[in-house]
Amino acid sequence: MSNLRAGVIPVTPFQQNCTILFDQEEKRGVVVDPGGEVDRIRAAIADNEIAVEAIWLTHGHIDHAGGAMELKEALGVPLLGPHEDDRDLLENLENQARMFGLDQAVLNVTPDRFLTEGETVSFAGHVFEVLHCPGHAPGHVVFFNREARFAHVGDVLFSGSVGRTDLPGGDHDALIRSIREKLLPLGDDVGFLCGHGPGGRFGDERRTNPFLK
């Protein structure tokens, strides 16, 4: 049985699901999308005695990347992702903060490495395939663990809904293609966590999600 586990910390007024993926036995893991409230994220890491090896970003919107550089500097770990098509978003996070009237400290993000379709990232022997899934954001990526039948889909797909496409760089048709052509073919049994709200299974979304009918 896989020792892969996930802990979710909803952060900031956006209630974004910052996720800690970790190995239950080795207590090594990664932080996915630290959108803010870095002190809370660091407390959860310490309370669970997780050795964080990297930060992974699904995309460059402020609610997902707003705390990434602060956490990177605090932990001294590499920051990976998203796809390079989100470079402009990451380089303008401070402007995003002003646009939303946020009072949290936000730093523009420079990843150690952008990610591309088809490569893999891993920790503690848990290998995740990188899927480039534009639509919500041009450089959005999804992380898929084939062995565990699990995906972190960020803001591409939600339980009963899909990511919004009315923000700069959004494209509804591209989003639906990403879901239909890249996510759903992975299998009805695949469980997922998303950027906001509860997760689910691809099969349930294929059958009941009104945006996929």
Record keyword descriptors for this entry.
213 residues; alpha+beta; Metallo-beta-lactamase, Chain A; six-stranded mixed beta sheet; five-stranded mixed beta sheet; 13 strands; 25% helix; globular
Overall description:
This protein is α+β, with helices and mostly antiparallel strands and 213 residues long. The chain has one domain (4-212): Ribonuclease Z/Hydroxyacylglutathione hydrolase-like (Metallo-beta-lactamase, Chain A), CATH 3.60.15. The protein has seven helices and 13 strands. It has helices at residues 38-47, 62-65, 68-75, 87-91, 93-99, 172-183, 202-208; strands spanning 4-11, 16-23, 28-32, 51-56, 79-80, 120-123, 126-132, 141-145, 150-152, 157-158, 161-162, 191-193, 200-201. It has a six-stranded mixed β-sheet with strand order 6-7-8-9-12-13. A hairpin with an 8-residue loop joins strand 7 and strand 8 (141-145). The chain is globular and about 45 Å long. The mean pLDDT is 96.
What is the compact description of this entry?
This protein is of the alpha+beta class.
